[in-house]
Every structure is written in structure tokens, then in C-alpha cells.
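Re: duplicated header lines in exported C-alpha cells

Our pipeline writes sequence and C-alpha cells for each protein into one text file. With two proteins the header for the second block appears twice in some exports. Here is an export where it did not happen, for reference. First protein block:
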Amino acid sequence: MKSKKKLLLQSAFLAFLIIGTVIIVRQQRSTPYQKDTGFIFGTVYNITYQYDKSLKADIEAELKKVDGSLSPFNKHSIITKINRNEDVTVDKMFADVFNLARQISTETDGAFDITVAPLVNAWGFGFKNDTQPTRHAIDSLKQLTGYMKVSLDGMKVSKKDPRMMLDCSAIAKGYACDVVAEYLRKRGIENFMVEIGGEIVTQGINEKRLPWKIGVTKPVDDSLNTNQELQTVLNVTNKAMATSGNYRNFYYKNGKKYAHTIDPVTGYPVQHNILSATVIADNCATADAYATAFMVMGLDKAKAVLGRHPELMAYFIYSDKNGNNAVWFSPTMRDKIVE
């Protein structure tokens, strides 16, 4: 009798679980996907998420927090005040990015460096001018760069030279993706894709109940950003992805091509053979920074870093010795390649 009663209770509990699961699945299927688009950090964002209403206002509030901390184009941001040598206490966002940037600078022997702004500006890729600098000017500016010359003491930034400037452009968009992703998670949202200027964080499944798939653009000279031909497609579900390339941001002067990625060590635009570096990591700030660093380092040095960091996945498109496009990717990336 007791065993029969126990069996009935177990059956009832199992039925309850099945019915509950069916209700949850139906609810998930019926909940619409919101698609918010806007403009931030001088670029476009696209955020898709499964929720019963738009959260665009809240999302933009999060993005404005990042802008108010890290944008050098915002006259009132913390980083702008630091660059003007004002007495300012940094916020948690700035501290998080500064500390991560310093860690990655160390790991890449200075290939990633948030003090590179004066050199970027001198070459015309920042917000000042496009006059080509002389060797003497580059040597002078290199005295004002170097990640070891700045530190975060408590919540105050110290610079060895007051003329030094910080520029987090190569990590801030990725960090902003992480901030929005964390906000969506706190709202209980399980399925989403956050994309800001090509940097991406995904979780769960898309509207078609499939994993999130992201294309990597084929690297051809495309300063107008009109080329949409894909080199490959990657499955980046529950990961973050960032791509850095010199095939869109460049200019020609006196018949020579100058790429937008500046080598902090030499002070000159990089001349390495990597055309495009795509990195997949657990968070987008990390992916963003390493993608930039790998463009600076070149293929061999980038491979060495990846050997020390198995948690990173990378997909490189490079120019081989014959000038033809070739591909190399880390072994862990193989399972992510869809086509």
C-alpha cells in the first residue's frame, strides 16, 4: 500500500514537472524578440533580445554610463578630464577597463597600450589632423607614451608626464557590449545578441531557435564599408567576439598605404601581414583588446600569445609570401567554424 502511494506521488510529481516544462517552453516560444538600434561612441549598435517589451531607454542609459566614463569625444567624460589633468576620481567602469588594459598590455609586451593616443592623433586617425609626422616628431611623442608610465592609485590616475593622453577606443566598445549583456542577464533575459560597431556578445538562441552565427567579412580594401562578402561564419553562442582589421580604416599619401593600427613600440602604422584578426573570448573587452594587439604583433608573435592563453580563440586572415590571402586559426576555433 505504501509503495503504491509512493508510486502515485512520484507519478504526480513527474507529471507536474512535464506540464511545467511545457508551459515554460511555450512561454519562451511566444515571447517576442526585441530589436533595438541606435548610435553610440561614433558607431551604430544593434541589440536583439527575447523580452515582452523594449528596453531601449534602459539600454541607452547603460551605454551613456560607459560614454561618460571612457569616451575621449565626450567633453565631460572621466577620461577626458584625466587627459586635461583635472583632479578626478574614476568610477568602477574606468577602473575595470584600466586594470584589464594594463594586464593585456603586459601579456602582449606593450602591443596593446591605451597611452597611444598622441601617436594615433599624429597619424591622423584620431580627432586632430591628418598631417604625416616626421621621424623627430614620432620620437618626441614616444616619450609621452607607454603603459608603464601611468598607474591607478586608489581611484586616481597618475601620469609620469602631464602631457600623456589615454585612449580606450580599442577596448571600450567591447566593454560596453559586456555592460549591456550583464544588464540583460540581470533582467532574466536568456537569449540575446549585443553588437556595437562590430563587437559582439551572445547568449542562448536566436529568433529561429538556433545558435547565434556571426560572419567574418573578407578583407578587401573597403574604406567606404560597402563590402559584405564573408570569409567565414562562426558560431559564437555564449561567447564574445571582436574583429580588428586594416582593410577599412586607412588612407593613401604619396602612393603609400597607412593603416589605422599604430604600433606603440615603433610609433608607426603596422606593416605586418595580418589583414584581419578575429578573437573569441569569454568577455568582449578582452576579445576587443587582443584583436587590436594581434594586429600590432603580427602572426608569429600572436601565435605565441595564444599558446599561453588557451582560453582565447583566434581566426587570422593574412597575406602570405606570395601576396595571396591565407587563413590561420587556433585549434580551439575549429569547432566554431560553421562554413
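Second protein block, exported in the same file:
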Amino acid sequence: MTEILAQDNGMAATSAAQKVVDHPAWPELKNAVEAIRPWQSKDGSIDFAAEDAPSRAAADEALTRVVTGVERLSPLLPHDAAYHEALVTDLRRWGDDGFGVPDFLDSLLAFQPAAQRADGLQHLAVFAMYTQNGNPDRNLEAVVLRMVWPEWLAELERTRYDNPLFCGITFEDFTSGYDTNSAVFFPETIAVREAPERFSWGGIFCDREAARFRRVTEAAVDLLKVSLPDDAHEMVADQDRCLQAFVLWDMIHDRTHSHGDLPFDPFMIKQRQPFWMYGLEELRCDLTAFREAVKLEADGVPQGHDVQYAILFDRLFRFPVTGARERNYDGLGGQLLFAYLHKHDVLRWRDSTLTIDWERAPEVTNQLCGEIEDLYRAGIDRPKLVHWLAAYDLVSSYLAPHPGSRWAKGPDALDLSLPPRKLVDDVLADEFPLSMFYEALSKKLKNVIASTKGITATATPSGTGTGRVAA
């Protein structure tokens, strides 16, 4: 397998089909969707009694243009024919029913991108949906995407990291809901009359992740005077190489949510718990990917080394200073990784310079992964509240809690007559505030972080070129 992977370090496109976005029907469809979006309410319906509502005739005309666009573009994508047929039916029914709360369940069930993971394969998707970390409203959106599924990745999924629902994807073009910070395409965000028994795919835009990573990392490294190894410099300068690292990282991270010693109630089931529990879960999945990347590097898989850089730099430089401070569980995980590496002398901040012990970084990062796994392994023998408190102890061993925190004072400060979910109300929105280091870094990087909104990357399809990052 190593020989195959070394030969396939680039990603060769397998689809020679005409690009959907080059067809004249695409901008017409896109413009029609953009016309409809401002008319929609939060739930996706159109209230024709509202002051700024369109006429029913205008809404019908715009919807007809969407349908026509789908019908004209569908022949370019024969693998999506069943989905597009169901989509046209769902769109027409929405209009016939007076543009109430949209229902795209039938077309969602017909859309099966994970069933045909061919590298370079295009898809045209239109749904009423919200975009995670983007637009919270269920507006109509249209996106043209391309599958990232090179042979080296397919081989790893077949032999080491089974994940039949995972789709690595890149943007071709999109409507306004994706001109945001959203880098995912998940079926649970789509407006449906009832949730399906199970979802059959999940997509992550690794080109956006890679472009965002490059811009923030370059700025942070320059600001903090980090001395990068030559291969790290080369990676950060190469959009395609970063894309390959992210699609591998994402595939391993995604499957880790259901692998390992887990709490009895899996993370994926929606439940109310303190946000540090979500932070630890996301960090566990990333650190598991890091540990696997170390193994892959030892086995001769070239992307394994890059995944280690990607996880360290994204977690240390971008995660802690991105987003609001209210229950920011990804930010918490980044802070925890930094503090852990700093306590174990892998990171040092002296003379306004951040130095990293590159030789010890893998060992100590894997050590933190082991501590989180020990917490999980013991969790099955603990009541929920005791498990939450043990997790708090782990985090607060490295991060200083807010001085006004009740949880920091221990169980005697909590009303233990209440069920655990009620005690979540006692968690402060910013239970673990930023350190002085990250407060300063946040101010310096805020404009760079803001500039990554809606970022895309133009590269040779499936990763054979160096790429160009564009906002």
C-alpha cells in the first residue's frame, strides 16, 4: 500500500464532464435562488402579508427559474438524475402549497453522494437549509461541489479508517449562505417534514478549511516569530498539499466520534451538557487523528506528516481566537492543547517569540490524547455529574477557570438536588477565559480571521496544482 500511496501523492481528476458553473444555466439558477432568499422567513417560508413581501407572481416566477435551471443542468450530472427529479418535485410542491415551511425530505433521501465517491465528480445541490457556522435561517441555497476522493484516500478508507458516509468536497460555486464561515454540508441542516431514521452522507469542504488554515497560519507564524521547519513552510505555501492534509484529518476525525472508549450516551445524540464536554470530544477526535497521522508517517504515507502540522497550527493559532467567547468549545480545546504543550515545555514564549520543540511535539500531543482517553474509559463507571466534574478537573488542571465560577468551587457549591442538565445553567458563558497570551493574539489576528469569511481556493481539480487562495 505504501508504494501505491507514494505514487499517488497528487490527486488525478476522474471526471472530464463539463463544469456545471461554466454552463449559462448556472448563473441563472443562482440569481433566481438569490432573489428568493431575502423573501424567506427564518423557517424558510414566505409570508406574503409581510410589508416587504414579493407578489405571489414574482415568487412563482423566481421558483420557475430555479426549476428550469435544475432541469437544464441535470444532464451534465447523470449520477444525480434521481435526486434532481425528486428536487424538482419538492420545489414545485413548495410553490403549489403557497411557499409555506419547505420540505425537502424526498429529495434529501434521493441525494446519495457517499454512494459514488469518485474523485472529481461534480454535484449540484439545491435545498432549503441553514449553513452551520454561517446562516442560521433555513433559506434556499444552491451549491456546486466536487468530490475529493483520490485513490490513496480511498485505499486508507478501505483498509484502515472505514467511514462509508464521509465525503471530502470542494466548492465550485455557491449562494449567499456559504459566503460565510461554514465549511460543512450536512443533511441534518436541511428543511424536512421529519428527520430520516439515519443520514447517509456528510460533507466537509476541505478546500475552504485549507485556505483558511493557510491565511491564519501565515499571519500567526509571522506575528509570533515561529521558526518553522522547511517542510512546514512548504506545506503552508501549497494549497493543494494543505487540502490533502485536511481531507485525511477530517475523515479520521469524523469516524472517531463513534470509535474508542465512549460514554454510554454517544456524543452524536443531542444532549444538554457543559460545553467543556463538547470541547474535549472535539479535541479527542483531533488528537486521535494526530496520533494516526504519526503512524501513517511511519508507514510511509506522505500526508501523515502534514496532518500533524495542520492539527497543531489550526488548534494553536486559529481555534482559540475564532468566534465569540460564549460556550466556545473548539476555542477551549485549542487553549487546552496550548497550555498542555506549554506546561510540558514543548512550547515556550520568551522574548516575544514562540518556540516549538518539534522533536517532542508528537510524543507530548499523544500524551494529552491518552489523558482524555483515560477520562472516557473511566466514564462508563461514573454517574453523569461525576463524569462532568472529572472532566472539569482535567481541563482546570491546565486552564484557569473564571474566578466567579461555581463549578470551580467544586460540588459543594452546586445544588446537587437538581438534575445534571439543570446544573448546566451554572456554567458561565466563558467558563475558561482566554489567557493573556491569547487575548493579545486575538487582537492582532482579528482582521485576518475576519478576512477568511467566505474564503475559497482555486486549485487544479483533485490537487495536482499548487493552488491560489482568494477571498
